[in-house]
Amino acid sequence: MYVTKNEPFFHTAPLHLRWRRAFCMFLGLALPVIVQAAQPEEGAKSLQSWTLAPTTVSGAGDGYTAPTSESATRTDTPLVEVPQSVQVVTQSMLKEQGSRSLSDALVNVSGVRATKPQEALFAQPIVRGFPAEIYMNGLPAFGGTAASIDPTSLIGTERIEVLKGPTSALYGGGIGAPLGGLINVISKRPEAEPSAFLSMRAGSFGTVNPSMDLNTPIGDKVAARISADYQENDSWIDHINGHQWSIQPSIAFQLSPETELLLRGQYEDRNQLEFSGLPAAQALSGQIDRNTFPGASSGQPHTTIENRTTTAEFRHEVNDDTRLSVSAQYYEGKIRDNGGFIFPELLGANPATPTVYPIFKLYLPTSIRESTLDTNLGSRIEALGGSHELMVGASYDRTDFTSGVSNAELIGELDLANPSYGISYGATPQTIVSQTNRYETKAVYLQDQATYGRFHLLGSLRLTQLNLKQQEQGVDTSYHRVTPRLGITYDLTESLALYAAYSTGFRGAFNYNGQETPKPELSRNYEAGVKLAYQDLGLSGTLAMFEQTRRNVSTPDPDPAKAILGYSVQSGEQRARGIEADLVWEPTPALSLLGNYAYTQAQVTEDNTIPVGDVLARVPRHSGRLAARYRILDGAAKGLGFGAGITALSARELTLPNTVSVPGYALLDAQTSYDFDRYTISVSAVNLTGRKVFETYQYLGSPVVLPTQPRSAYLTLTASF
C-alpha cells in the first residue's frame, strides 16, 4: 500500500533507527498488558466454562480447510450442504502466506478481483464480473467504493468468507445488497484463555510494521481483546510514501449461561500520497518511465481515509433449539481526496511532445454516516417428515452520504518519459459541486433450511423497502422489492454432493444523474456444481458453473446535448458466464495444497453507447492460482516451513467501451519460516522473478495502469505467549 509519513523523525531517520524507535515505542505500550495477559487469573477459570461458543469462527482449524460457514446462511452450516459457492480464507492461510491486505488474501479465491489499496477510493471488488461488497462480521458499511470498509490491517482477522453471487435474500444496507457477491471479514473474538502476540515486520521500500494481538480475561465472565497495527513505507513509484494504523478493541460479557454481549470497535486511518495511474497505451509500450509519479512533487496534500466502526452483538440461547441474535453498528467515514493527475479526456499531450502531459489537481471530500440494526430468531424443528432450521429476521439501515468535487485545475506539465519534478500543488481547490444522498433500508426476511434424507433444501425470501433521496437532483423515491433465493443439495455420498441454486441482487442507483427517477440495479444468478468434503483424503472444494445478469446499468443519455451535461439513462445490461474450481488438499498436517481457476466471460449484452460484446473492465477471461505449504513437524528441523505460490491472469480491459487491454501475467511468491519456543522468524517474497508488468487501475474512468510491485522481500519476527 502507498502510505505516508507525517512525523519528521521518520522522514530523516535511517531505516534501522526508524525500526528500533517504532519497536521500542510498541513494546513500551504493549509489555504491561502482555505481562497481565500471560498470567492466568481466577477469572480465567470461570471464563473457560462459557457456554456460548463463538460460532462465527467455528471450523477454522489449523490448516487451509474450513468445513463450515456462517456467512452463507447466518447459521453454522457445513459447506458441503450449502447450495452456493462459498470460499474461506483461513487464519493459517493468512499467516503462512504473509497476507497484509484483502488484495493479498483474495488471490486464494477463484473469480475474485480485489480492490488494490491504492484504488480503494474509486473501485469496488469484483466477484464473478460484477461489483461485490465488503462486510465486517455480517454487517455493511456503505457500498459505493472499497474505501469505506476495506480493512487497513488483517491483524485482528479470524478468517475471510467469500459468498459468490448476489445475496439480497439475507443482506442489505447502505445503497443496497451486493450484486456480484459478498466478502465477509470475520474478526477475532475475546477468549477465555489469555494470549499475546507481538510482531515486527520490515523489508523493501523502507517498510516498518509493528503489530500486536492481546487477549485476556478480566474478572469473572468477562474477556477483552485488542489488536493493533501500524505501518509506514515508501514505494517503488517516485515520491510515494505514507502511513496507516488500525486498532480493534473488543470486550465480551457472559451475562448468564445462555446470554452473551460482545462490544467491538474498529478505528483506522490511512494517509497516503495519491497515485492516479499512468497512461496505459504508452506505459504498456515502454514509452514512459514506469515509476513516474504523475502529480505535484511539491506541496500536494496527502489523501486521508478515516474509518470508525462501533458494533454491539447480543446473543441469547432461548433453549437448546432456539437462538436470538441482535447486532447494531454505527459507522463513520471521512475521506479527503487530494489528487494530482493526468486527464487526457480533458487535455492530452501535444503530438509534438507525446510524453509531456498537463498535470491537474482535484479535491474530492466525502463523509459517510451509517447506522445499522439487524435482529433474527432461529429455531430447529422437526416437521413435515424432515428437519428444519428456520430463521426470521428484520433489519434497518440509514446511510447519509455527502461529497463534493472541485474543478480540475491545471498546475503544470511533466514529461512522463524523463520526469523533472518540481510542480507545486498550491492551495487546495474549492469544491464547486456537492452531492447529498440519503439511503434508508427497512427489510424483513425468512429462511428455511430443510433436510430430507440426502436432500438439503434452502429457501430464503426478503422484502425490502429502500428509500432514496438525492438532494441536488430532487430525487425522493422508494423501492419495494421481494428478493428470493432457492437452492438444493443432494448427497451422492457422505463426501460428495451436487447442488443447484438461484439468487438475486438489488441495490439503489449510486449518484445517478438523469431526468427520470432512477430505478434500482438488479442482478440474478443461476449456478450448479459439485461439493467435495473427503475428510479421510484431506480433499475439499467446489466446482461450479454460473450465469449472472445485471440490469438497469447506467449509460450516457442518447441525446448528445444531455450526455455532455453528464446525464444518464438506465438502459444497460451485462452478463457473466463461467466455470470455477476451488480445491484444497491436505493429505497430512505437514502439507497444504491449494488450487483455483476461473473462466469468466463477462460482457455487455445491451447498451445505447457501448458496443454489445465489449468485455467488462478488470475481469480476466482466465485466472487462477496454485499454492503449497510444507511444514516439518518432527526431527532436528522441526519448526521449519516452506511455501510458494503462482498467480496467473489473462488480459483485462481497462474501460467501457474497450479501448486498451492490459496483457496477462504470472507472478511467483514464496515464504519460509522457523518456529522455536514461542518465537517465529519468517521471510516472504513477492514477484520473486521480478516481472515488469502492469495492473488495471481505476481513476476517474481513464485508461490508466499501475506498475506491479517489483521483487520485494520482508522479514517478520513474532513472539507468542
UniProtKB/TrEMBL annotation:
Q: Which residues form the TonB-dependent receptor plug domain?
A: 79-174
Going by the UniProt record, its keywords in alphabetical order are:
Cell outer membrane, Ion transport, Iron, Iron transport, Membrane, Receptor, Signal, TonB box, Transmembrane, Transmembrane beta strand, Transport
Query: Which compartments does it reside in?
Result: Cell outer membrane
Its predominant location is membrane
Which stretches make up the TonB-dependent receptor-like beta-barrel domain? Answer: 263-688
Q: Where is the signal peptide?
A: 1-37
PROSITE patterns given for it? Answer: TONB_DEPENDENT_REC_3 (PS52016)
A Pfam family annotated for this chain is TonB_dep_Rec_b-barrel
Judging by the UniProt lineage, the source's domain of life is: Bacteria
Which topology term describes how it sits in the membrane? Answer: Multi-pass membrane protein
PANTHER family of this UniProt entry? FERRICHROME IRON RECEPTOR-RELATED, FERRICHROME OUTER MEMBRANE TRANSPORTER_PHAGE RECEPTOR
The Swiss-Prot or TrEMBL record describes its family as follows:
Belongs to the TonB-dependent receptor family.
The record's section on NCBIfam families has:
TonB-siderophor
- The molecule here is called TonB-dependent siderophore receptor
